[in-house]
Amino acid sequence: MAPKLQLPYATATFCLIFLSLISPAEAYDAGDALALLLGTVVAVVGLCACLGWYARRRNGQLLLQLLLIMLRMAE
């Protein structure tokens, strides 16, 4: 009996075939490269910020920092 093609593999195969039919962009200049680089940097910094926030929240340090900020505001 032949193996059955599972849904994730079928979707990936369909996407690869679909993307291979699209012609590449002809005009790729320095502005496009700069926008791609800037977007990548912003995405990586955002990911690191989210991971740091999650780690602090998990360790309970975020609550301590919020309390210290509230105490400073109350003075």
Summarize the structure.
The chain is an all-alpha fold. Helix content is about 80%, strand content about 0%.
How would you describe this structure in keywords?
3 helices; 75 residues; mainly alpha
Describe the protein.
- This protein has 75 residues and is mostly helical.
- The chain has a domain at 35-75.
- 79% of the residues lie in helices and 0% in strands.
- It is built from three helices and no strands.
- The chain has helices at residues 7-21, 30-59, 61-74.
- The protein is elongated.
- InterPro entries: DUF4730.
- The chain crosses the membrane at residues 37-55.
- Keywords: Membrane, Signal, Transmembrane, Transmembrane helix.
Structural class: mainly alpha
- Spell out the helices and strands N to C: HHH
**In angstroms, what separates the terminal alpha carbons?**
76 Å
Number of DSSP helical runs: 3
Model regions low in confidence, pLDDT < 50 over at least 5 residues: none
E-strand count: 0
Main pleated sheet: none
Furnish the topology, listing elements before pairings.
Blueprint: H1 7-21, H2 30-59, H3 61-74
